[in-house]
Amino acid sequence: MGRGQRHSKNAGTMGSESQTYGERAALGFGTVKERLGKEAIGNYWDCKLTLQPLVDPVVTPDGYMYSKEAIYESLLAQKKANKRKLAAWEEQQRGEDRKMLEREAVDTHTKLLAFDRQNHMGASHQAAGHISDAIRAEAEAQLAEKRVVTNEVNIKENVDKIKDMKAFWLPSQTADHRTKLEKPDLDTVCPASGKKLRLKDLIPVHFTPVPEGSSGRHMDPITHDTFSNSMQLVVLRPTGDVLTKESYDKCVKPEGHWNGMKLRKNDVIELQRGGTGFSLHDGKSIESTKYWYLGPGSGMADLRGQHQGPRSATGLIFMN
């Protein structure tokens, strides 16, 4: 290993206390990036939830399309989950209110007891204070032992049997660590964008199918151009018709009418485009990143230390 001023530098390369930059890179330490294909993004006619062709398509104000049944089930599940969270939070609040009332009762009783000891039993002010502190400490300990019910449903069956079990992996046998619940947000959100979304915000979409025997799925109702993932499409809110952005700008926007209906600015919704596999079109959505933590305890790196074996010459190599 050597001696002298370079000992700290040589220790990392000649010994095995630390890894070199090349070793960390070979082990994949840090951020690993991978380029995704267009299949990871999907097509413009795919539902963002099921990743299957749209059935009874609807679109959000941000341009994400879903199958009607899939998005309805998602929003319903969110509502049920929000109700459960709200019930748990309300139960926690009731438990905290009960504790507050109990503390106030204990504090009142403590003051009365201290007053009685001072005026009728001749106790000093300091002794009465010690008694009050002891009573408060005991009351706080008893309140801490009471479990606050945070579940919507309190299961009372087989309570004695569960208490007698010594299986440490069961939730009932784990340490009682209660986290304070925050008041839940009751709004349902779009699964793709995370923005607030309600049922009435969903707009039915009507595609114009291509003639039988032609390639593709849908076409522009004005120019009859076949849609592709590289095209920017728009939905007209009043009718749900889908056009290309170019067709809308040239044929519909100047007049401001479609099928006898006047269009406002917010009546035109740009759809999220499908994947093509080209970075110029798909942007950052075709790149996936993940941060890897590699160390002695991960099982993916050899042990390091004064009495360990030599370092790895190659390590793990990510073939991306």
From TrEMBL:
Coiled-coil boundaries: none
Where does this protein reside within or beyond the cell?
A: Nucleus
Molecular-function GO term, any one: ubiquitin protein ligase activity
Domain Nitric oxide synthase-interacting protein zinc-finger intervals: 20-79
Keywords on record: Nucleus
Give the similarity note. Belongs to the NOSIP family.
Name the chain's protein: Nitric oxide synthase-interacting protein zinc-finger domain-containing protein
The source organism is: Apatococcus lobatus
The lineage is: Eukaryota, Viridiplantae, Chlorophyta, core chlorophytes, Trebouxiophyceae
